[in-house]
């Protein structure tokens, strides 16, 4: 039996290192349709067999895990693609390279934490007043100011109840009291 040293081997992944779309789906927990969508967005890449079947390197599992982690912290698929584009094209980026890309998420995560803390404070305030109504609450929505600013949850996620979508009236006190 003759062994071929790695230096004599053709560049690229060995056939045994390639996964079919079904194998990749099973290992990643994603449907084949999701994998094809990820490929269409440039998040993952496949080679094709002579018969046109997709084959993925095992490193694709890392890319999928990265994309799913990005989504969990609130990044869009486009943002995940941009982050992945910073990585080298070889099959397995180093740990340091992954760390650099993940560190770029720090600001985004900090912003999300701050927004969740604002949301928590607003929910506590609204629940604390007892009325739970943005249409009647004299504290957060005197005269339905939020409704005049358009549809959607005007205060809950992004607006400051003290300032609202327009300046607050000077006679606004606590909920129900004037």
From TrEMBL:
<dbReference type="InterPro" id="IPR009061">
    <property type="entry name" value="DNA-bd_dom_put_sf"/>
</dbReference>
<dbReference type="InterPro" id="IPR015358">
    <property type="entry name" value="Tscrpt_reg_MerR_DNA-bd"/>
</dbReference>
<keyword id="KW-0411">Iron-sulfur</keyword>
<dbReference type="InterPro" id="IPR047057">
    <property type="entry name" value="MerR_fam"/>
</dbReference>
<dbReference type="GO" id="GO:0003700">
    <property type="term" value="F:DNA-binding transcription factor activity"/>
</dbReference>
<keyword id="KW-0238">DNA-binding</keyword>
<keyword id="KW-0479">Metal-binding</keyword>
<dbReference type="InterPro" id="IPR010211">
    <property type="entry name" value="Redox-sen_tscrpt-act_SoxR"/>
</dbReference>
<dbReference type="GO" id="GO:0006979">
    <property type="term" value="P:response to oxidative stress"/>
</dbReference>
<dbReference type="Pfam" id="PF00376">
    <property type="entry name" value="MerR"/>
</dbReference>
<dbReference type="Pfam" id="PF09278">
    <property type="entry name" value="MerR-DNA-bind"/>
</dbReference>
<dbReference type="GO" id="GO:0003677">
    <property type="term" value="F:DNA binding"/>
</dbReference>
<feature type="region of interest" description="Disordered">
    <location>
        <begin position="158"/>
        <end position="178"/>
    </location>
</feature>
<keyword id="KW-0001">2Fe-2S</keyword>
<dbReference type="GO" id="GO:0051537">
    <property type="term" value="F:2 iron, 2 sulfur cluster binding"/>
</dbReference>
<feature type="domain" description="HTH merR-type">
    <location>
        <begin position="18"/>
        <end position="86"/>
    </location>
</feature>
<keyword id="KW-0804">Transcription</keyword>
<keyword id="KW-0408">Iron</keyword>
<keyword id="KW-0805">Transcription regulation</keyword>
<dbReference type="InterPro" id="IPR000551">
    <property type="entry name" value="MerR-type_HTH_dom"/>
</dbReference>
<dbReference type="GO" id="GO:0046872">
    <property type="term" value="F:metal ion binding"/>
</dbReference>
<protein>
    <submittedName>
        <fullName>Redox-sensitive transcriptional activator SoxR</fullName>
    </submittedName>
</protein>
